[in-house]
Amino acid sequence: MVVVLVVDQVVQVGAVLHLAELGCEMTLVDQRIQRTARRTHRDAKERHRPDDHVHPDIAQRWFSWPNLLFLSPVPIVTALVAWAEWRSLNNDSELSPFAGAIGLFVLAYLGIAISLWPNIVPHRFSLWEAASSESTQAFLLIGTLFLLPIILMYTGWSYWVFRGKVRSDIGYH
């Protein structure tokens, strides 16, 4: 019986020492993580300058004279769609906020495409450099032509099955 108690005490002391060792290791790891985070934050702060918000090529594309005239409809239409979206949120209609959200997403992607064209990876690779081989593109095209109609039919069917199941007057109770 005494041997069992002694062994039990040794195991408990060993467990406590092991937990203490793990705690010390975790403290050291935490200190290393904090040092790395402070160094990364300091480095990022040193690299950031107030004029870094706009890349010169993008500013040239949007704000040079002939482009300013041709590209100005994009931010103007975006502002109008955002205003219409804001106004439509107070209506009972569900279609106009949905259409406004889609319009804002399309215009945002259009702005990104205008800003980065012809680069697909910003300031690194052009669309043609990042493209896959012709055989890969043909394989994906065939797969898309086969699967996209199936996905669209299934989505339409699921909308058809669940039509009219939710009403705005019943809420969550």
Structural account:
The chain is mainly alpha-helical. The protein has two domains: 2-51; 54-130. Helix content is 76%, strand content 3%. The protein is built from seven helices and two strands, in the order H-H-H-H-H-E-E-H-H. It has a two-stranded antiparallel ribbon. Strand 1 (119-121) and strand 2 (125-126) form a beta hairpin. Helix 4 (73-88) runs antiparallel to helix 5. The longest helix is centred in the first third of the chain and has 46 residues, at 2-47. The relative contact order is 0.04. The mean pLDDT is 79.
Topology:
Elements: H1 2-47, H2 56-63, H3 65-71, H4 73-88, H5 95-116, E1 119-121, E2 125-126, H6 127-130, H7 134-161
Antiparallel strand pairs: 1-2
What characteristics describe this protein?
single chain; 173 residues; mainly alpha; two-stranded antiparallel sheet; 3% strand
Q: In a few lines, what is going on in this structure?
A:
The chain is mainly alpha-helical and 173 residues long. The protein has helices at residues 2-47, 56-63, 65-71, 73-88, 95-116, 127-130, 134-161, and strands spanning 119-121, 125-126.
Largest sheet: 2 strands, antiparallel
Report the mean per-residue pLDDT as an integer. 79
Return the domain count: 2
Strand content: under 5%
Question: Segments where pLDDT lies below 50 for 5+ residues?
Answer: none
